[in-house]
Amino acid sequence: MEFSTYISLFIYFVAMLGIGLYAYRENEKSASGYLLGGRKLSAPVTALSAGASDMSGWMLMGVPGAMYLTGMSSLWIVFGLIVGAWLNYLIVAPRLRAFTEVANNSITIPEYLENRFFDDSKTLRITASLVIIVFFTIYTSSGVVAGGKLFESSFGLNYQWGVFITAGVVVSYTLIGGFMAVSLTDFVQGCIMFIALVLVPTVVVFELGGVNETLHTLQSISPNLLSLFASAETGETIGILSIISLLSWGLGYFGQPHIIVRFMAIKSIRSVPTARRIGMSWMIISLFGAALTGLFGLAYLSKQGITLDDHETVFILLSTILFHPLIAGFLLAAILAAIMSTISSQLLVTSSSLTQDFYSHFLNKTASDEQQVLVGRLSVFLVALVAIFLAFGENQTILSLVSNAWAGFGAAFGPLILLSLLWKKISKQAAITGVITGAVTVLLCIYLPLDDNGTTLSAYIYEIIPGFICSTLALVIVSIVKPHSTKDLVHLYDKYEIHLKNNHP
């Protein structure tokens, strides 16, 4: 690896730490300031931080790798994600911003659910918090593993050193600057990812002699590469159930705490349409840029007679062989940006839950803002230590769990978040049942064997579909059978609708 490549990465690391220090100096010295940025994020920062924290290294490695392997049939998941994200901005964003403010200024998802349903028993808050803490700690570990492997494969560093460097930089700016630092670094990282995903496929097409020549090369490799309905890997036609499963990834957006918390932090409801336009433009261009990187990369590498042992490294390989080492360092920093943006968001959401949903409600009910901020910082550090410990094991079971976390969060929280914002009659008992039903259904789909060969339902259909359906049914049925019994719920919902109407753009 060229020295100038390391210079690019060093500049990137320094910039991230500098943003963390800036956020520390500008942030409000309160729990709300540290954990939610004081609800003053601008529309561009909200949009790009939501996108960057959402996509992770999956967009720069997973999407290009899938397109490289199977061709355009992998675009169905891109279509599903775009539709899901757009609906999330349209339905959830303005309503969640309004409701979390009128529901006693809630700053975490579990706190919102408790205040929304007047759950004095704390059962709903504890249930939601446990789901967040367990899955996000494991989720964070997967990001640390990805960072370690990137340093190992691209820079020749020891895997353990890569883990420590990745975690160390992320923990530093998250611990210092809190939510504002995470959001601002996500904004910068989103910009880096955007430039990289436009630049790489454009240069590849130029090297191949234009779009027509690129498409001709792909056609000569396999006609199925350009088909939406057939896999180039197997040559088989993709069934309707497979297409539905890929599209259903979009359902997960409604229940992802690290994404929807951005909607809670935007400075006003009137800023949501601007954030939606910016966020969706970024997402569409970036996702298709990632897809074309894999597809066009296959054509280029085929012409050069280069084969890949790991199809998910196509972006890394193209970056190192097509660009000057200084630019290659910038492009590799885009992968780190994707990884780090998600790790930092997951760290802070987990820290927020530990601080607000456990410490300040069970261990120290009279905790001052200074104490809560201190506990928040300690929680970031402790969660990171657990994530590093898990990463050193490189446990495949953990990584398999993480691959299903999107479905778990989407099924456990997605239907509840939607109905809590759209339906006045949903009850506390239904909310608790819905969270548990969604999570358990996903786990059963993943692990419960259907035959002697150990085949599970997730082998046939993406587990978020049965999880989402079962959770929704549980919410509706329990709300009808056991409706809420307090007028406070109706009063709060009415207050929310008035606030939403008065502030809607």
TrEMBL record:
Gene3D superfamilies in the cross-refs = Sodium/glucose cotransporter
Q: Which reaction does it catalyse?
A: L-proline(in) + Na(+)(in) = L-proline(out) + Na(+)(out)
Q: Would I find Ion transport among this entry's keywords?
A: yes
Stored InterPro entries: Na/Glc_symporter_sf (IPR038377), Na/Pro_symporter (IPR011851), Na/solute_symporter (IPR001734), Na/solute_symporter_CS (IPR018212), Sodium:Solute_Symporter (IPR050277)
What membrane topology does the UniProt entry give?
Answer: Multi-pass membrane protein
Q: Which positions, given as ranges, span the membrane?
A: 6-24, 75-92, 126-147, 159-180, 187-206, 238-261, 282-302, 314-339, 374-393, 405-423, 430-449, 461-481
Main subcellular location:
membrane
Task: Provide an example Pfam family for this protein.
Answer: SSF
Subcellular localization(s) per the UniProt record: Cell inner membrane; Cell membrane
> Which keywords appear in this protein's UniProt record, sorted alphabetically?
Amino-acid transport, Cell inner membrane, Cell membrane, Ion transport, Membrane, Sodium, Sodium transport, Symport, Transmembrane, Transmembrane helix, Transport
Has UniProt tagged this entry with the keyword RNA-binding?
no
Q: What job does this protein perform?
A: Catalyzes the sodium-dependent uptake of extracellular L-proline.
**Entries under NCBIfam families matching the protein:** Na_Pro_sym, sss
Q: Family assignment?
A: Belongs to the sodium:solute symporter (SSF) (TC 2.A.21) family.
Task: Name the chain's protein.
Answer: Sodium/proline symporter
Organism, scientific name: Agaribacter flavus
**High-level lineage:** Bacteria, Pseudomonadati, Pseudomonadota, Gammaproteobacteria, Alteromonadales
Name the gene that codes for it: putP
